[in-house]
Design brief:
Layout lengths: L1 E7 L11 E5 L9 E2 H11 L9 E2 L2 E2 L3 E5 L2 E2 L9 E2 L4 E6 L5
Parallel strand pairs: 1-9
Antiparallel strand pairs: 1-2, 3-8, 4-5, 6-7, 6-9
Length: 99
């Protein structure tokens, strides 16, 4: 499944400073659909190159990471259970800033 992933607010530093990723994610074995939970696991394994604890906590994103699926807050679409479709755009933005 082709997806566009974007990392901002400093999260791009965890992905070798690359903000935009056009990726092809395979469905998990036996699955008929790709969920955000599946995608987060894939991102942690395939894109995050350093300090994964700054992006993930358990099986979800850390508090302070805004997740948008096609410009809609994932909290409105089911968070980890959100079903992704071909060519969806997922944005991860850190809302925490150092000072």
């Amino acid at each position: 499944m082709q997806l566009t992933l974007e990392f901002g607010g400093g999260l791009e530093l965890l992905c070798e400073s690359v903000k935009l990723h056009n990726v092809n994610v395979d469905l998990p074995n036996g699955a008929e659909k790709l969920t955000m939970k599946d995608l987060l696991s894939w991102v942690q394994t395939n894109l995050i190159k350093e300090r994964p604890e700054m992006f993930m906590k358990g099986d979800t994103v850390r508090p302070g990471v805004l997740v948008l699926v096609n410009d809609c807050d994932w909290e409105l679409s089911g968070q980890l259970d959100t079903t992704l479709e071909e060519k969806d755009a997922v944005v991860f933005i850190s809302t925490l800033h150092g000072g």
